[in-house]
Structure formats: structure tokens, C-alpha cells
Amino acid sequence: MTNINQFKKLIIGAACFAVIATGIGVSGQHSAYAATQSSNAAVQESVATASATSAQKIDKVISLSKSLMGKVKYKFGVNNPSKLWFDCSSFTKYVFGKQGINLKWGSSAQSKQGVYVSKSNLKKGDLVFFSVATPGKVNHVGIYIGGGKFIQNTIGGSVNGVIISDLSKYSKRYITARRVV
């Protein structure tokens, strides 16, 4: 989102410079208005393009995550892409990294990246954080995929690897969410 805001500022700044550079006086007010309208249209088009690009990246992150089901092994404290051995946060770091989105390693560190998202406003691609051992302390992360579900790399019972889970079943352990795209 910061890239979109920076781009907006750049476009508006360029439009302002163009207005000043043309030496607009009273007779040039119509040109200034036209330049501003043109600049606004360019900003809106850029925002739409950036949103489409973000949505495409999120879809690719989710698609890659799903394609790794049955291939990835969960190993606590491990980040080994060559063997597809990950803990929960190195898995999210890996799949987002494939789309050029850099995440830190560690669920607690990732819970401080991006912007806060309320549970009621989750969108596909948001990181969701949970407490597994210590109540109230972030120590697990997954990726919200829509429809009340998230994908995670985990271990427990007969599970070792990437699975899709119902967020409602984790409501007692849910802590927060962050939007990083």
C-alpha cells in the first residue's frame, strides 16, 4: 500500500510542477484544471493497476501454498527451501518471497510487518497469527485464503506439513492479522 501512496504523491507532485512550469496566470486556469483532472485520472488508473497486481500476487501466493500440500515437511526452527523443510513462518516467508514480498523469519516478527487488519476485515493473503503454547503470545502464523479458511504449515497428530484449516476452530488461539500486500 505504501507504494501506491508514494506513486500518488509522485503523480500529484508532477502535476503541480507542470502547472508551475507553464507559468499559469489567470488565463491559464483552465489548463491547470485540465492538468489536475488528467493527473487524477492517471492516479486512479495506477491505483487500479496496483490493486490488480496485488490481487494477482496474493492469488499466486495462495496457489503456490496449495501446490506444496503433501510436499512440505514441518520442522520447528528450520528454513530449508532446498528440501522443502519449513516451520510456519519460514513457510510464509518462502511463498510470499516467491512473489517479491519480503517477510522476516519468525511469527512474532511477521506479526509486526504490514498493517493491522481486524478479524472481521480479513482478505485473501492476510497473515493470521495464533498462540500455540503461551496464551496471548504470537508463535504461529498462517495465510488467510478466504471463506473462513487459512493455509498453514504445521505439525500435530497425523499432520506434518501444509494444510487448510477453518479459522473458526482456532478462535480461542487467534491473536491478530496483518496485511503485507
TrEMBL record:
GO terms for biological process: proteolysis. SUPFAM superfamilies: Cysteine proteinases. One of its GO terms (molecular function) is cysteine-type peptidase activity. InterPro entries: NLP_P60_dom, Papain-like_cys_pep_sf, Peptidase_C40. Residues 55-181 form the NlpC/P60 domain. Belongs to the peptidase C40 family. PANTHER family: MUREIN DD-ENDOPEPTIDASE MEPH-RELATED (PTHR47053:SF1). This is C40 family peptidase.
